[in-house]
Amino acid sequence: MHPNEEILETFYSSFKNHDPQAMTACYSKNIIFEDPVFGSIRGERAIAMWFMLNERGGDGLKIEYSEIQANDYNGSAKWTATYLYGPQKRRVVNHVVGTFSFQNGKIVQHTDHFDLYKWSRQALGFKGLLLGWTKFMKLKIQQQTSKALSNYLHKMKSFQEEA
């Protein structure tokens, strides 16, 4: 197994085991992450995102992954997340292809590709069905997730200052 395939195996097995600390140890400090829901985020925000998602998903978050492949520079994996979303606890099954770039034994870029319209129909219900395909809804989703991530980061920093 290529060393970068081992990094991806560690990343996804840690995700499956709800261990964001081990997941994000695979990232470089200046990681660039991108997906349709969060848009493009970097560094501390990208790392905090995995802590937030694991915390919110709790024991109901199920991760499956396959087809890990990597070379010296790039890699990819397929993965599926199953979880309950939002106050209505809507069941979401999200099929994702992750692509990666590596440098010095760390992930420096991670992009998750998935169908935002399919995700929004599951996560947002009727509103997602009607508007989930629009640029307006994509921007609205990214604004809401950015705000949630900012609030989470603020909460984490406050907690760390108290400790």
From TrEMBL:
GO terms for molecular function: isomerase activity. Coiled coil: none annotated. SUPFAM superfamilies: NTF2-like (SSF54427). The keyword Isomerase applies. Pfam families: SnoaL_2. Residues 9-110 form the SnoaL-like domain. InterPro entries: NTF2-like_dom_sf, SnoaL-like. The keyword Isomerase applies. Gene3D superfamilies: 3.10.450.50. Keywords: Isomerase. It comes from the Bacteria. This is Ketosteroid isomerase-like protein. It comes from Leeuwenhoekiella polynyae.
